[in-house]
Amino acid sequence: MIKVAINGYGTIGKRVADAVAAQPDMEVIGVSKTKPSAEAFIANQRGYPLYIAEINRKPLFEEAGIEVAGDVIEMIKQADIVVDATPGGIGVKNKKLYELHDVKAIWQGGEDHEVAGFSFCSSCNYEEAKGRQFTRVVSCNTTGLCRIIHAVDEAFRVKRVRATMVRRGSDPGEVKKGPVDAIVLNPVEIPSHHGPDVQSVLPQINITTMAMIVPTTFMHMHALQMELEKEATKEDIIGIIEAHPRMGLVRGATGIKSTAELKEFAQDMGRQRADLYENCIFADSVGFVGKELFLFQAIHQEADVVVENVDAIRAMMNGAADAATSIQMTNEALGFHAI
Ligand SMILES: NC(=O)C1=CN([C@@H]2O[C@H](COP(=O)(O)OP(=O)(O)OC[C@H]3O[C@@H](n4cnc5c(N)ncnc54)[C@H](OP(=O)(O)O)[C@@H]3O)[C@@H](O)[C@H]2O)C=CC1
Ligand SMILES: O=C(OP(=O)(O)O)[C@H](O)COP(=O)(O)O
Protein backbone atom coordinates (compact mmCIF):
# COMPACT_ATOMS: atom_id res chain seq x y z
CA MET A 1 0.00 0.00 0.00
CA ILE A 2 1.23 3.49 -0.85
CA LYS A 3 1.29 5.60 2.33
CA VAL A 4 -0.14 9.04 1.52
CA ALA A 5 -0.11 12.13 3.76
CA ILE A 6 -2.30 15.10 2.89
CA ASN A 7 -0.76 18.33 4.14
CA GLY A 8 -3.65 20.84 4.12
CA TYR A 9 -7.11 19.39 4.63
CA GLY A 10 -9.25 22.05 2.91
CA THR A 11 -11.31 22.19 -0.29
CA ILE A 12 -8.86 20.11 -2.31
CA GLY A 13 -7.17 18.19 0.51
CA LYS A 14 -10.35 16.69 1.95
CA ARG A 15 -11.43 15.46 -1.47
CA VAL A 16 -7.99 14.02 -2.23
CA ALA A 17 -8.06 12.22 1.14
CA ASP A 18 -11.39 10.56 0.35
CA ALA A 19 -10.26 9.67 -3.19
CA VAL A 20 -6.99 8.16 -1.89
CA ALA A 21 -8.85 6.22 0.82
CA ALA A 22 -11.05 4.69 -1.89
CA GLN A 23 -8.07 3.33 -3.89
CA PRO A 24 -7.13 -0.34 -3.48
CA ASP A 25 -3.38 0.42 -3.55
CA MET A 26 -3.24 3.49 -1.28
CA GLU A 27 -3.92 4.49 2.32
CA VAL A 28 -4.25 7.85 4.08
CA ILE A 29 -1.72 7.92 6.92
CA GLY A 30 -2.63 11.46 7.99
CA VAL A 31 -4.12 14.84 7.15
CA SER A 32 -3.26 18.27 8.57
CA LYS A 33 -4.84 21.49 9.80
CA THR A 34 -3.60 24.62 11.54
CA LYS A 35 -6.70 25.36 13.63
CA PRO A 36 -9.86 23.68 14.91
CA SER A 37 -12.66 23.81 12.34
CA ALA A 38 -15.56 21.84 10.92
CA GLU A 39 -13.10 20.09 8.57
CA ALA A 40 -10.98 19.01 11.54
CA PHE A 41 -14.06 17.37 13.08
CA ILE A 42 -14.74 15.62 9.77
CA ALA A 43 -11.14 14.32 9.63
CA ASN A 44 -11.68 12.73 13.07
CA GLN A 45 -15.06 11.36 11.98
CA ARG A 46 -13.58 9.82 8.81
CA GLY A 47 -10.83 8.21 10.91
CA TYR A 48 -7.95 10.09 9.27
CA PRO A 49 -5.17 10.71 11.84
CA LEU A 50 -5.09 14.51 12.25
CA TYR A 51 -1.73 16.26 12.49
CA ILE A 52 -1.21 19.95 13.15
CA ALA A 53 1.28 22.47 11.80
CA GLU A 54 2.20 23.86 15.25
CA ILE A 55 2.16 21.34 18.09
CA ASN A 56 1.82 24.07 20.73
CA ARG A 57 -1.74 24.55 19.45
CA LYS A 58 -2.69 21.00 20.45
CA PRO A 59 -4.62 22.16 23.57
CA LEU A 60 -6.84 24.34 21.32
CA PHE A 61 -7.87 21.24 19.36
CA GLU A 62 -8.29 19.07 22.44
CA GLU A 63 -10.44 21.69 24.18
CA ALA A 64 -12.67 21.60 21.09
CA GLY A 65 -12.90 17.82 21.37
CA ILE A 66 -10.72 17.15 18.32
CA GLU A 67 -8.18 14.34 18.57
CA VAL A 68 -4.63 15.21 17.44
CA ALA A 69 -2.14 12.51 16.37
CA GLY A 70 0.96 14.73 16.36
CA ASP A 71 2.68 17.42 14.34
CA VAL A 72 3.13 17.64 10.58
CA ILE A 73 6.76 16.49 10.73
CA GLU A 74 5.69 13.24 12.40
CA MET A 75 3.14 12.76 9.62
CA ILE A 76 5.69 13.38 6.88
CA LYS A 77 8.14 10.88 8.41
CA GLN A 78 5.60 8.07 8.01
CA ALA A 79 4.63 8.91 4.43
CA ASP A 80 5.84 7.56 1.08
CA ILE A 81 4.37 10.65 -0.55
CA VAL A 82 2.81 13.94 0.57
CA VAL A 83 0.02 15.72 -1.28
CA ASP A 84 0.53 19.36 -0.36
CA ALA A 85 -2.87 21.05 -0.58
CA THR A 86 -2.06 24.04 1.60
CA PRO A 87 -3.10 27.47 0.24
CA GLY A 88 -1.17 28.83 -2.75
CA GLY A 89 2.15 30.32 -1.61
CA ILE A 90 2.33 28.18 1.55
CA GLY A 91 3.13 24.93 -0.22
CA VAL A 92 6.43 26.20 -1.62
CA LYS A 93 7.60 26.93 1.94
CA ASN A 94 7.14 23.25 2.80
CA LYS A 95 9.58 22.11 0.10
CA LYS A 96 12.60 22.21 2.47
CA LEU A 97 10.71 19.89 4.82
CA TYR A 98 10.07 17.36 2.08
CA GLU A 99 13.70 17.55 0.95
CA LEU A 100 14.95 17.15 4.51
CA HIS A 101 12.84 14.03 5.08
CA ASP A 102 13.49 12.73 1.56
CA VAL A 103 9.81 12.24 0.84
CA LYS A 104 8.03 12.57 -2.50
CA ALA A 105 5.64 15.53 -2.80
CA ILE A 106 2.87 16.83 -5.04
CA TRP A 107 1.89 20.50 -5.10
CA GLN A 108 -1.23 22.15 -6.49
CA GLY A 109 -1.79 24.82 -9.13
CA GLY A 110 -1.63 27.68 -6.63
CA GLU A 111 2.14 27.18 -6.65
CA ASP A 112 4.37 28.08 -9.59
CA HIS A 113 5.69 25.44 -12.00
CA GLU A 114 9.20 25.97 -10.56
CA VAL A 115 8.23 24.49 -7.17
CA ALA A 116 8.51 21.02 -8.69
CA GLY A 117 10.03 21.75 -12.11
CA PHE A 118 7.39 19.45 -13.58
CA SER A 119 3.66 20.09 -14.15
CA PHE A 120 1.22 17.22 -14.54
CA CYS A 121 -2.03 16.24 -16.24
CA SER A 122 -2.80 12.48 -16.26
CA SER A 123 -3.96 12.15 -19.84
CA CYS A 124 -1.11 14.33 -21.20
CA ASN A 125 2.19 13.44 -19.53
CA TYR A 126 1.76 10.52 -17.08
CA GLU A 127 4.88 8.75 -18.39
CA GLU A 128 7.10 11.73 -17.54
CA ALA A 129 5.88 11.69 -13.91
CA LYS A 130 7.00 8.12 -13.29
CA GLY A 131 9.40 7.84 -10.37
CA ARG A 132 9.74 11.61 -9.83
CA GLN A 133 10.32 13.08 -6.37
CA PHE A 134 8.35 16.27 -7.04
CA THR A 135 5.34 17.08 -9.22
CA ARG A 136 2.84 19.91 -9.49
CA VAL A 137 -0.74 19.16 -10.52
CA VAL A 138 -1.84 22.15 -12.63
CA SER A 139 -4.80 24.32 -11.60
CA CYS A 140 -8.41 23.32 -12.17
CA ASN A 141 -8.87 25.49 -15.26
CA THR A 142 -5.51 24.46 -16.69
CA THR A 143 -6.38 20.79 -16.15
CA GLY A 144 -9.67 21.27 -18.04
CA LEU A 145 -7.85 23.01 -20.89
CA CYS A 146 -5.03 20.45 -21.09
CA ARG A 147 -7.41 17.49 -21.31
CA ILE A 148 -9.34 18.74 -24.33
CA ILE A 149 -6.47 20.47 -26.12
CA HIS A 150 -4.20 17.41 -25.88
CA ALA A 151 -6.92 15.00 -27.06
CA VAL A 152 -7.81 17.17 -30.07
CA ASP A 153 -4.13 17.89 -30.82
CA GLU A 154 -3.33 14.15 -30.95
CA ALA A 155 -6.07 13.58 -33.53
CA PHE A 156 -6.08 16.77 -35.64
CA ARG A 157 -3.04 18.90 -34.65
CA VAL A 158 -3.98 22.14 -32.88
CA LYS A 159 -2.53 25.20 -34.63
CA ARG A 160 -3.76 27.86 -32.19
CA VAL A 161 -5.96 28.10 -29.08
CA ARG A 162 -7.92 31.08 -27.78
CA ALA A 163 -9.79 30.62 -24.49
CA THR A 164 -11.77 32.87 -22.16
CA MET A 165 -12.37 31.68 -18.63
CA VAL A 166 -15.38 32.89 -16.65
CA ARG A 167 -14.32 31.83 -13.17
CA ARG A 168 -16.33 31.31 -10.00
CA GLY A 169 -15.64 34.01 -7.42
CA SER A 170 -15.06 31.74 -4.43
CA ASP A 171 -15.62 28.20 -3.24
CA PRO A 172 -19.02 27.65 -1.53
CA GLY A 173 -17.66 27.84 2.03
CA GLU A 174 -15.51 30.93 1.50
CA VAL A 175 -17.95 33.46 2.93
CA LYS A 176 -15.41 36.28 3.09
CA LYS A 177 -14.44 36.19 -0.61
CA GLY A 178 -16.16 37.91 -3.50
CA PRO A 179 -17.12 39.49 -5.76
CA VAL A 180 -20.73 39.90 -4.63
CA ASP A 181 -21.84 42.34 -7.31
CA ALA A 182 -19.23 42.69 -10.03
CA ILE A 183 -17.55 41.07 -12.99
CA VAL A 184 -13.86 41.37 -12.19
CA LEU A 185 -11.19 41.12 -14.86
CA ASN A 186 -8.72 38.74 -13.27
CA PRO A 187 -6.24 39.63 -14.52
CA VAL A 188 -6.81 42.72 -16.69
CA GLU A 189 -3.64 41.87 -18.58
CA ILE A 190 -3.48 39.24 -21.28
CA PRO A 191 -2.62 36.39 -21.09
CA SER A 192 -4.01 35.06 -17.82
CA HIS A 193 -1.80 32.47 -16.12
CA HIS A 194 -3.75 29.64 -17.77
CA GLY A 195 -2.07 29.88 -21.22
CA PRO A 196 1.51 29.69 -19.93
CA ASP A 197 0.34 27.02 -17.49
CA VAL A 198 -1.03 24.87 -20.33
CA GLN A 199 2.38 25.25 -21.99
CA SER A 200 4.06 23.93 -18.82
CA VAL A 201 2.34 20.60 -19.66
CA LEU A 202 2.01 20.95 -23.46
CA PRO A 203 4.92 23.18 -24.57
CA GLN A 204 4.09 22.82 -28.27
CA ILE A 205 0.65 24.44 -27.97
CA ASN A 206 0.14 28.02 -29.22
CA ILE A 207 -2.41 29.37 -26.71
CA THR A 208 -3.58 32.74 -25.41
CA THR A 209 -6.06 33.01 -22.54
CA MET A 210 -8.18 35.72 -20.87
CA ALA A 211 -9.96 35.39 -17.52
CA MET A 212 -12.50 37.09 -15.29
CA ILE A 213 -14.31 36.18 -12.09
CA VAL A 214 -18.05 36.40 -11.43
CA PRO A 215 -20.27 36.13 -8.31
CA THR A 216 -20.85 32.34 -8.35
CA THR A 217 -19.39 29.47 -6.31
CA PHE A 218 -19.90 26.34 -8.43
CA MET A 219 -17.76 25.76 -11.54
CA HIS A 220 -15.90 27.83 -14.09
CA MET A 221 -17.09 28.21 -17.71
CA HIS A 222 -14.70 28.22 -20.68
CA ALA A 223 -15.39 29.65 -24.13
CA LEU A 224 -12.80 27.80 -26.19
CA GLN A 225 -11.65 28.18 -29.80
CA MET A 226 -9.11 25.90 -31.45
CA GLU A 227 -7.81 26.28 -34.97
CA LEU A 228 -6.94 22.81 -36.30
CA GLU A 229 -4.42 21.82 -38.97
CA LYS A 230 -6.46 18.88 -40.30
CA GLU A 231 -10.10 18.80 -41.38
CA ALA A 232 -12.46 17.53 -38.66
CA THR A 233 -16.19 17.37 -38.10
CA LYS A 234 -18.39 17.96 -35.09
CA GLU A 235 -18.95 14.18 -34.94
CA ASP A 236 -15.17 13.59 -34.79
CA ILE A 237 -14.86 15.90 -31.78
CA ILE A 238 -17.89 14.39 -30.04
CA GLY A 239 -16.30 10.95 -30.59
CA ILE A 240 -13.04 12.11 -28.95
CA ILE A 241 -14.93 13.44 -25.93
CA GLU A 242 -17.03 10.28 -25.58
CA ALA A 243 -13.92 8.09 -25.66
CA HIS A 244 -12.05 10.13 -23.00
CA PRO A 245 -12.29 8.89 -19.39
CA ARG A 246 -12.11 12.42 -17.96
CA MET A 247 -14.35 14.31 -20.38
CA GLY A 248 -18.12 14.20 -20.63
CA LEU A 249 -20.92 15.60 -22.76
CA VAL A 250 -23.78 17.75 -21.54
CA ARG A 251 -26.33 16.62 -24.10
CA GLY A 252 -28.97 18.96 -25.47
CA ALA A 253 -31.76 16.61 -24.40
CA THR A 254 -30.92 17.24 -20.73
CA GLY A 255 -31.94 20.87 -21.21
CA ILE A 256 -28.92 21.93 -19.13
CA LYS A 257 -27.62 25.39 -20.04
CA SER A 258 -25.98 26.50 -16.80
CA THR A 259 -23.65 25.58 -13.96
CA ALA A 260 -26.61 25.65 -11.55
CA GLU A 261 -28.39 22.92 -13.51
CA LEU A 262 -25.14 20.93 -13.68
CA LYS A 263 -24.96 21.02 -9.89
CA GLU A 264 -28.50 19.66 -9.66
CA PHE A 265 -27.53 16.96 -12.18
CA ALA A 266 -24.43 15.97 -10.17
CA GLN A 267 -26.48 15.75 -6.98
CA ASP A 268 -29.17 13.68 -8.67
CA MET A 269 -26.49 11.32 -10.05
CA GLY A 270 -25.45 10.73 -6.45
CA ARG A 271 -21.96 12.16 -6.87
CA GLN A 272 -20.28 12.68 -3.49
CA ARG A 273 -20.27 16.45 -2.68
CA ALA A 274 -21.82 16.99 -6.16
CA ASP A 275 -18.30 16.58 -7.54
CA LEU A 276 -17.85 16.63 -11.31
CA TYR A 277 -14.37 15.28 -12.00
CA GLU A 278 -14.80 15.50 -15.76
CA ASN A 279 -14.79 18.39 -18.26
CA CYS A 280 -18.50 19.06 -18.86
CA ILE A 281 -18.61 19.93 -22.55
CA PHE A 282 -21.86 21.26 -23.96
CA ALA A 283 -22.53 19.00 -26.97
CA ASP A 284 -24.61 21.60 -28.82
CA SER A 285 -21.82 24.18 -28.52
CA VAL A 286 -19.34 21.98 -30.41
CA GLY A 287 -19.08 23.37 -33.94
CA PHE A 288 -16.77 24.57 -36.69
CA VAL A 289 -16.24 27.72 -38.71
CA GLY A 290 -13.86 26.40 -41.35
CA LYS A 291 -11.08 24.62 -39.45
CA GLU A 292 -11.80 26.55 -36.25
CA LEU A 293 -13.45 24.54 -33.49
CA PHE A 294 -15.69 26.29 -30.95
CA LEU A 295 -17.09 24.91 -27.68
CA PHE A 296 -18.21 25.72 -24.14
CA GLN A 297 -17.03 23.61 -21.23
CA ALA A 298 -17.79 23.86 -17.51
CA ILE A 299 -15.07 22.86 -15.04
CA HIS A 300 -15.79 21.98 -11.43
CA GLN A 301 -12.97 23.76 -9.63
CA GLU A 302 -13.18 21.65 -6.47
CA ALA A 303 -13.14 18.30 -8.25
CA ASP A 304 -11.26 17.92 -11.53
CA VAL A 305 -7.77 18.05 -9.97
CA VAL A 306 -8.65 15.46 -7.31
CA VAL A 307 -8.47 12.47 -9.66
CA GLU A 308 -5.31 13.94 -11.22
CA ASN A 309 -3.63 13.96 -7.78
CA VAL A 310 -4.42 10.25 -7.37
CA ASP A 311 -2.85 9.46 -10.76
CA ALA A 312 0.17 11.63 -9.94
CA ILE A 313 0.71 9.58 -6.76
CA ARG A 314 0.56 6.35 -8.75
CA ALA A 315 2.92 7.60 -11.45
CA MET A 316 5.50 8.89 -8.96
CA MET A 317 5.31 5.62 -6.98
CA ASN A 318 5.52 3.50 -10.17
CA GLY A 319 2.17 1.98 -9.21
CA ALA A 320 0.69 1.47 -12.68
CA ALA A 321 2.08 0.55 -16.09
CA ASP A 322 0.61 3.52 -17.92
CA ALA A 323 -1.82 6.43 -17.79
CA ALA A 324 -4.78 4.44 -19.04
CA THR A 325 -4.34 1.82 -16.30
CA SER A 326 -4.04 4.41 -13.54
CA ILE A 327 -6.95 6.52 -14.78
CA GLN A 328 -9.15 3.42 -14.97
CA MET A 329 -8.14 2.34 -11.44
CA THR A 330 -8.80 5.81 -10.04
CA ASN A 331 -12.15 6.20 -11.77
CA GLU A 332 -13.33 2.69 -10.85
CA ALA A 333 -12.42 3.07 -7.19
CA LEU A 334 -14.55 6.24 -7.10
CA GLY A 335 -17.38 4.63 -9.05
CA PHE A 336 -16.88 7.46 -11.53
CA HIS A 337 -17.98 7.28 -15.16
CA ALA A 338 -17.83 10.53 -17.14
CA ILE A 339 -21.26 11.92 -18.07
N1 LIG B 1 -10.28 25.53 -4.37
C1 LIG B 1 -10.11 25.32 -5.65
O1 LIG B 1 -11.04 25.48 -6.43
C2 LIG B 1 -8.82 24.84 -6.20
C3 LIG B 1 -7.64 25.01 -5.52
N2 LIG B 1 -6.46 24.61 -6.10
C4 LIG B 1 -5.20 24.80 -5.40
O2 LIG B 1 -5.13 23.85 -4.32
C5 LIG B 1 -4.39 24.41 -3.23
C6 LIG B 1 -5.26 24.35 -1.99
O3 LIG B 1 -6.40 25.15 -2.22
P1 LIG B 1 -7.73 24.97 -1.37
O4 LIG B 1 -7.97 23.54 -1.07
O5 LIG B 1 -8.77 25.74 -2.08
O6 LIG B 1 -7.34 25.73 -0.04
P2 LIG B 1 -8.13 25.75 1.35
O7 LIG B 1 -7.86 27.07 1.95
O8 LIG B 1 -9.54 25.31 1.16
O9 LIG B 1 -7.40 24.62 2.20
C7 LIG B 1 -6.09 24.74 2.60
C8 LIG B 1 -5.87 23.90 3.84
O10 LIG B 1 -4.51 23.98 4.23
C9 LIG B 1 -4.43 24.09 5.65
N3 LIG B 1 -3.18 24.79 5.98
C10 LIG B 1 -2.91 26.09 5.88
N4 LIG B 1 -1.63 26.32 6.23
C11 LIG B 1 -1.09 25.12 6.55
C12 LIG B 1 0.18 24.70 7.00
N5 LIG B 1 1.18 25.56 7.17
N6 LIG B 1 0.37 23.39 7.25
C13 LIG B 1 -0.64 22.50 7.08
N7 LIG B 1 -1.86 22.85 6.66
C14 LIG B 1 -2.08 24.15 6.40
C15 LIG B 1 -5.66 24.86 6.04
O11 LIG B 1 -5.99 24.51 7.37
P3 LIG B 1 -6.62 25.56 8.39
O12 LIG B 1 -7.95 25.93 7.83
O13 LIG B 1 -6.68 24.78 9.64
O14 LIG B 1 -5.65 26.72 8.44
C16 LIG B 1 -6.68 24.32 5.03
O15 LIG B 1 -7.28 23.16 5.55
C17 LIG B 1 -3.97 25.81 -3.70
O16 LIG B 1 -2.71 25.73 -4.31
C18 LIG B 1 -5.02 26.15 -4.76
O17 LIG B 1 -4.59 27.11 -5.68
C19 LIG B 1 -6.43 23.96 -7.30
C20 LIG B 1 -7.58 23.73 -7.98
C21 LIG B 1 -8.85 24.20 -7.52
O1 LIG C 1 -7.18 26.61 -9.70
C1 LIG C 1 -8.15 27.36 -9.66
O2 LIG C 1 -8.40 28.32 -10.56
P1 LIG C 1 -7.43 28.82 -11.73
O3 LIG C 1 -7.24 27.65 -12.67
O4 LIG C 1 -8.17 29.91 -12.40
O5 LIG C 1 -6.13 29.25 -11.09
C2 LIG C 1 -9.06 27.29 -8.49
O6 LIG C 1 -10.37 27.61 -8.84
C3 LIG C 1 -8.54 28.17 -7.39
O7 LIG C 1 -8.66 29.48 -7.80
P2 LIG C 1 -8.58 30.70 -6.76
O8 LIG C 1 -7.12 31.08 -6.71
O9 LIG C 1 -9.44 31.75 -7.40
O10 LIG C 1 -9.13 30.21 -5.44
UniProtKB/TrEMBL annotation:
What would be one Pfam family of this protein? Gp_dh_C
Q: Which SMART domains match?
A: Gp_dh_N
Q: Record's Gene Ontology CC terms?
A: cytoplasm
Pathway the protein takes part in: Carbohydrate degradation; glycolysis; pyruvate from D-glyceraldehyde 3-phosphate: step 1/5
Keyword line: Cytoplasm, Glycolysis, NAD, NADP, Oxidoreductase
The top EC class is oxidoreductase
Catalytic site residues? C140 (nucleophile)
Q: How does it assemble?
A: Homotetramer.
* The protein, known as: Glyceraldehyde-3-phosphate dehydrogenase
The gene it comes from is: gap
